[in-house]
Amino acid sequence: MHFSTIISALALAGTTLASLNTTREYELRTQLKPGQEGKERFGDLWLVASHTGAGLNDAVLYANRSYAIKGFENATNITQSDGQPFFNQLFDLGGTLPYDLNVAAYANFYAAWEPVRIDGGSGSGGFFMNSSGLQWNSDPSGPAGSNLFGGWLVCDWWHGVPQLFAKWNDYHYESPCSCADVDLLPVYI
Questions:
Q1: CB-hemisphere CA count at 13 Å for 182?
Q2: Tell me, which fold does domain 3-188 have in CATH?
Q3: In which element (H, E) is residue 157 found?
Q4: The three-state (H, E, C) secondary structure of 61-129, written as one string
């Protein structure tokens, strides 16, 4: 293979990630929901990808913003009821390929919440932003009321740092003392 062919291939791979970015880049920060006294440690944390295998990461949160990952959205062909598109929530982890926020990686709908992953390849889709930050519709093409997403939960469990979980709206339990309900707000770069 000639040197110029290698350079051309690398240039093309670099433009692949940039062409998927249809929005302004941001970092996601937690904001503690009201009424959770004693859980302040879960506020003002930044989303980070914690490597768990080849192309696989758990979504964790750090207090130090310098570790935050850059996120962006890529519009899908499915629209919301107001005509706005749903998005894939993508992240630039420094390589040539994007990583998707994957909410339904485990899809145990009998559990009250599920771990969130940031993996290479196709993710959940169905994301959008509103005044409470990043939201997810688990069934964007389904009938009204078919969305199972009940919000974001941050827990001190598996990694020695807070980890991100998605709650299912069929369960209305008080969060455990090692967890807090949060919003994920974009901080634009």
A1: 28
A2: Trefoil (Acidic Fibroblast Growth Factor, subunit A) (2.80.10)
A3: none
A4: EECCHHHCCEEEEEEEEEECCCCCEEEEEEEECCCCCCEEEECCCCCCCCCCEEECEEEECCCCCCEEE
Q: How big, in percent rounded to 5, are the helix, strand and coil portions of the chain?
A: 15, 45, 45
Q: Which two tokens stand for residue 58?
A: 């758990």
Return all residues near 81 (Cβ < 8 A) that are at least 6 apart: 144
CA distances in angstroms from 121 to 53, 104, 105, 118, listed in the order given? 14, 14, 12, 9
Burial of 52 (C-beta count, 10 Å sphere; 0-12/13-18/19+): middle
Q: Are 164 and 150 in contact (CB under 8 A)?
A: no
Per-residue pLDDT of the chain (189 residues; tens, 9 = 90+): 433 333 333 333 444 555 566 678 999 999 999 999 999 999 999 999 999 999 999 999 999 999 999 999 988 777 888 888 888 899 999 888 889 999 876 667 678 888 999 999 766 788 999 999 999 988 877 777 778 889 999 999 888 999 999 998 877 778 888 999 999 999 999
